[in-house]
Amino acid sequence: MSNWVDSTNVFSLLFFFMIYACLGWLLENTYNYIINRKFVKDNFFIGPFKPMYGFAPILLLLMLSPNMHLLTVLMLYLVIPTIIEYVSGWLLFTFFRRKYWDYSKQKFQLHGHICLPFSICWMVLSYACLHWLHLIFVMIYGKVDFLWPWMAPFVMIYLLAELIFAIRRNLLIQSPANEPNPVQ
């Protein structure tokens, strides 16, 4: 955990956000392939990333400290990704009438946006990411950190353009001439 505090400047956070968002996209599409035999799942964004998977580790990196009790850490690993998943699902449905996932048939679910079995998965994934993978990403960032201040503005412009186009595309899909998507 000592590497976490050293790796929380704005540039490194953006770097880690992109890494985890891309890994989230890969994880979801791999899961979708295993379940549905189709690799690419319908996505809010066109690019190969899922922001939910980027925000959770970043918030955890900012909230955790080396001297935190293990139970507190595990609770944060459970709660933070679950809150992000709920808010994401709620926002997507409220503003775009689109559901990209639906847990309504699962036990211990809330509004179809979150459920206990997946929250436990998020806790395990958070632990694995921040205790094993993150150390590798810190080392990788250490090798490219001199380039990142110049690359970061381009990444930010790309993310902003993706967001604008995604909002526009999803608002057009929601127009009266089109039906909202069925739950996937």
Automatic annotation (TrEMBL):
The chain crosses the membrane at residues 12-31, 43-64, 70-93, 114-141, 147-167. Pfam families: ABC_trans_CmpB (PF06541). InterPro entries: CmpB_TMEM229. The keyword Transmembrane helix applies. The keyword Transmembrane helix applies. Keywords: Membrane, Transmembrane, Transmembrane helix. This is ABC transporter permease. It comes from Perspicuibacillus lycopersici.
